[in-house]
């Protein structure tokens, strides 16, 4: 189903928005899904097309998945694991793959996908494109409201759409500047629908069920209900699911969607119609102005915490899609970078709120029943990347669904650890779904990677590093400790080196040799880097919480036996323990997993110059090509190396029509939202870095952005940073100390920084050129400016 795609006759778009106003806007309706604009409240999502004859809102609810609760563990796994390990350590990779594909892969081997509810379709009479002028659609990121405006037959029509967190409904408001001029019909349709009905005199409903999947019956039932609240005129619903609005001055359409999903391990049950009607009853009791106010207040409470301000050039007045095309052609448009940053924050707010499912491969928005890669949680990079901006971009609450996911996969993964590996703790491999499948998926080449859960669990430690919240750490520490206990039980000793290794494993999605088993290995560099971070976090967490000293001792002992990072003959950081990199089949492979230690880890810093140089050589050899998310990771890699211009070049590569859709969704291709989120994280890395035990200001500022201001960025150890710069140099920084910890601030553009608090100088020390240290008090604000 597609909206009216014919372009209205445009006296074009009217005035362009102010560059200071974060708005995506277009002078025509969306001709495809990737030009529609997203709204969401974490649980409910819609892609709004903005058609004039027919408007389509493609709908999602975050618990509508195929399949149902299911144990994916292969019963033959435990009996074949030892032989699989022997074959891998012996270098018999093809034989190992055959065995793993038969006995160690999950059953079924593919996990079920996230699915679309369908669409709300609004049809308007006498709305042919020849009758429409002065068309404009926009998404205001500051208010979270989508607007369509146009003239039709001499009447100005306006539609506002938003997804409300406080009221848990989608709201569509239709108005006109002539009384009685609002006429439309509304209907719900979708590929999973089983029937329509009219549950009220001004309401229609669609019901259906998630699909079957590889022998697992579809268990999730859903209801979507739209109710009309008219001002003047009439609204009537017919039993076949058609809602007709006639002669209204204005109408508010309220859309409620619920499923009978209960949890990852309980069978769904019950008709969700009553839950929908409850949502609608509450929302319909509020006037539209109150619904809008409640939504915007909730939205702005998060959105306005942080911002990036960059100068506007003439290009900033162009429609958004044209700005992307012009940016690719070298147009100077720094304000597009600020808009992209704001949009990434908007998307995370819209698809990940406390109490919802986490952001999946497409965040929340998916128009298919079998989308690319299932719209799952791919945890060999993509899900982690989704949440990289949560802390530095000041959206800590948006992290909460990931922590809930971790608690659930720790429970599911304990069964996988026990039945597959004979180990304690818990494990998850490279993919997770709504039913928290933690067994290997998709095939040995991709799925035989036991370290995904460990990487994901490190979000718990990162949260502590940013917030210093001991209560949150204590509450979540069993998940972190369980991830470590699995590896204490499952690591094996390589008889040739004496090193502790993961086996069998892979370096995600990359092969060291040709052949079906060419990805299989023992102890790849990424695994060792992740485990060093995991073991360090658990050891330090035990000390902070004053518990489990025996666990701290065990993880420290295991850490000492992991293989170190090694530099190969070509000067590259080795991806595997053996120096196979130069002969690997894909020299420009999109995954650069062994640079985890550079980003998001902090094992490769200025304190390790040889490893830093080797990381740089690795990035040069891999080149600047890649998928959308791969470019986003490289933006972060080069920022960590202090190479702001190279990092910015990769953002310009990403902001091209090939990698960025008209609606600014990142394209793998196809669409994956991780590239949007990874780029936001990379932009924060240009401005503030805090991974290496100090707070560094403007560590990788691109030359293309000589002037600007950033507000409300968060740094580890509980600092909030606002800073401005001009001529490529820091002018002033404002630091709020939330925890009262000592500050060590690095800025390379001056020998040191002067520090004041409430107008009075603060004694500071300069342990080395460019570094300033000073004590802080919790809640105090410090102003810093370049000394001299």
Keywords:
nine-stranded antiparallel β-sheet; globular; Beta-galactosidase, Chain A, domain 5; single chain; 788 residues; seven-stranded antiparallel β-sheet; 17 helices; Glycosyltransferase; 33 strands; alpha+beta; disordered N terminus; Immunoglobulin-like
How is this structure best described in words?
Among the domains are: 220 residues, Beta-galactosidase, Chain A, domain 5, CATH 2.70.98; 251 residues, Glycosyltransferase (Alpha/alpha barrel), CATH 1.50.10; 79 residues, Golgi alpha-mannosidase II (Immunoglobulin-like, Sandwich). It is built from 17 helices and 33 strands. The strands form 7 sheets. A 9-stranded antiparallel beta sheet has the order 1-6-7-8-9-16-13-12-11. Strands 2-3-4-5-10-15-14 form a 7-stranded antiparallel beta sheet. α15 runs antiparallel to α16. It is globular, with a radius of gyration of 27 Å. The N terminus is likely disordered.
Write a compact overview of the structure shown.
The protein is α+β, with helices and mostly antiparallel strands and 788 residues long. Helices cover 29% and strands 23% of the residues.
Helix content: 25-40%
Please provide the count of β strands.
33
Which CATH class of the domain at 74-104 and 376-595? Mainly Alpha
Q: Compute the CA-based radius of gyration.
A: 27 Å
Q: Label the CATH architecture of the domain at 74-104 and 376-595.
A: Alpha/alpha barrel
Topology, please?
Elements: E1 23-26, E2 37-40, E3 44-48, E4 54-61, H1 77-89, H2 93-103, E5 118-123, E6 132-140, E7 145-152, E8 155-163, E9 170-176, E10 182-189, E11 193-200, E12 203-209, E13 221-231, E14 234-237, E15 242-248, E16 250-259, H3 273-284, H4 288-303, E17 307-309, H5 320-328, H6 334-351, E18 377-378, H7 382-386, H8 400-421, E19 431-432, H9 444-447, H10 452-467, H11 470-490, E20 492-493, E21 500-501, E22 505-506, E23 520-521, H12 525-545, H13 549-559, H14 609-622, H15 628-640, H16 644-654, H17 674-687, E24 688-689, E25 695-697, E26 708-715, E27 719-726, E28 729-737, E29 743-746, E30 753-757, E31 760-761, E32 771-774, E33 781-786
Parallel strand pairs: 25-29
Antiparallel strand pairs: 1-6, 2-3, 3-4, 4-5, 5-10, 6-7, 7-8, 8-9, 9-16, 10-15, 11-12, 12-13, 13-16, 14-15, 17-26, 18-19, 20-21, 22-23, 24-25, 26-27, 27-28, 28-33, 29-32, 30-31, 30-33
Helix pairs in contact: 1-2, 6-17, 8-10, 8-11, 10-11, 10-12, 11-12, 11-13, 12-13, 15-16, 15-17, 16-17
């Amino acid at each position: 189903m597609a909206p009216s795609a014919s372009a209205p006759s445009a006296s074009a778009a009217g005035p362009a928005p102010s560059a200071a106003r974060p708005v995506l806007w277009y002078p025509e309706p969306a001709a495809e899904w990737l030009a529609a604009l997203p709204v969401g409240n974490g649980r409910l999502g819609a892609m709004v097309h903005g058609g004039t004859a027919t408007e389509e809102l493609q709908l999602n609810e975050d618990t509508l998945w195929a399949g149902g609760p299911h144990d994916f563990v292969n019963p033959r796994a435990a009996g074949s694991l030892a032989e699989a390990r022997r074959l891998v350590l012996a270098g018999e990779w093809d034989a190992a793959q055959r065995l793993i594909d038969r006995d160690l892969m999950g059953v079924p081997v593919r996990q079920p996908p996230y699915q679309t509810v369908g669409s709300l379709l609004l049809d308007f009479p006498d709305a042919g494109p020849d009758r429409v002028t002065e068309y404009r659609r926009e998404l205001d990121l500051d208010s979270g409201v989508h607007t369509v405006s146009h003239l039709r037959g001499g009447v100005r029509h306006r539609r506002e759409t938003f997804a409300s967190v406080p009221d848990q409904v989608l709201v569509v408001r239709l108005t006109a500047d002539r009384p009685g001029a609002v006429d439309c019909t509304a209907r719900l349709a979708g590929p999973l629908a089983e029937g329509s009905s009219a549950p009220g005199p001004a309401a229609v409903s669609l019901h259906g069920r998630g699909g079957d999947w590889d022998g697992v019956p579809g268990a999730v039932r859903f209801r979507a209900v739209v109710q009309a609240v008219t001002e003047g005129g009439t609204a009537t619903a017919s039993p076949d699911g058609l809602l007709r609005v006639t002669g209204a001055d204005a109408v508010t359409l309220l859309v409620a969607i619920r499923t009978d999903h209960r949890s990852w391990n309980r069978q769904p049950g019950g008709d969700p119609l009553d839950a929908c009607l409850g949502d609608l009853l509450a929302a319909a009791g509020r006037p539209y102005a109150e619904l809008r106010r409640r939504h915007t207040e909730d939205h702005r409470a998060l959105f306005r915490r942080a911002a990036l301000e960059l100068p506007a050039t003439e290009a900033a007045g162009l429609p958004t899609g044209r700005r992307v095309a012009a940016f690719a052609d070298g147009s100077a448009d720094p304000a597009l970078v600020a808009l992209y940053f704001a949009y990434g924050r908007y998307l995370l707010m819209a698809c990940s709120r406390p109490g919802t499912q986490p952001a999946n491969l497409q965040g929340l928005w998916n128009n298919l029943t079998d989308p690319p890669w299932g719209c799952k949680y791919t945890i060999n990079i993509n899900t982690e990347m989704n949440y990289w901006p949560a802390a530095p971009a000041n959206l800590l609450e948006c992290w909460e669904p990931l922590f809930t996911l971790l608690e659930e996969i720790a429970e599911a993964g304990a069964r996988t650890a026990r039945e597959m590996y004979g180990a304690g703790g818990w494990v998850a491999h490279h993919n997770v779904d709504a039913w928290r499948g933690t067994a290997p998926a998709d095939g040995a080449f991709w799925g035989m990677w036991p370290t995904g859960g460990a990487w994901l669990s490190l979000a718990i430690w990162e949260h502590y590093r940013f917030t210093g919240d001991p209560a949150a750490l204590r509450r979540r520490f069993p998940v972190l400790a369980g991830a470590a206990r699995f590896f204490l039980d499952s690591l094996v000793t390589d008889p040739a080196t004496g090193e502790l290794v993961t086996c069998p494993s892979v370096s995600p999605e990359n092969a060291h040799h040709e052949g079906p088993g060419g990805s299989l290995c023992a102890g790849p560099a990424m695994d060792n880097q992740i485990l060093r971070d995991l073991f360090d976090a658990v050891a330090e967490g035990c000390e902070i919480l004053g518990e489990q000293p025996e666990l701290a001792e065990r993880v420290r002992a295991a850490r000492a036996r992991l293989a170190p990072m090694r530099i190969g003959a070509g000067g590259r950081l080795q991806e595997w323990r053996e120096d196979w990199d130069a002969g690997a089949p894909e020299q420009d492979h999109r995954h650069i997993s062994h640079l985890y230690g550079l980003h998001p880890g902090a094992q490769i810093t200025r304190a390790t110059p040889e490893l830093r140089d080797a990381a740089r050589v690795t990035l040069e050899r891999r080149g600047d090509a890649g998928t959308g998310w791969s470019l986003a990771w490289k933006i972060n890699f080069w920022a960590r190396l202090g190479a702001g211009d190279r990092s910015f070049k990769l953002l310009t590569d990403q902001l091209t029509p090939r990698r960025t859709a008209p609606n600014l969704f990142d394209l793998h291709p196809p669409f994956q939202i991780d590239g949007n989120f990874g780029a936001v994280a990379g932009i924060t890395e240009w401005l503030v870095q805090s991974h290496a035990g100090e707070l560094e200001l403007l560590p990788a500022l691109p030359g293309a952005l000589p002037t600007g201001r950033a507000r409300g960025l968060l740094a580890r150890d509980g600092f909030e940073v606002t800073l401005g710069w001009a001529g490529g140099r820091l002018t002033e920084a404002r630091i709020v100390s939330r925890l009262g910890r000592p500050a060590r601030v690095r800025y390379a553009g001056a020998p040191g920084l002067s520090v004041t608090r409430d107008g009075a100088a603060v004694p500071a020390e300069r342990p080395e050129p460019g570094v300033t240290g000073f004590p802080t008090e919790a809640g105090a604000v410090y102003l810093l400016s370049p000394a001299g």
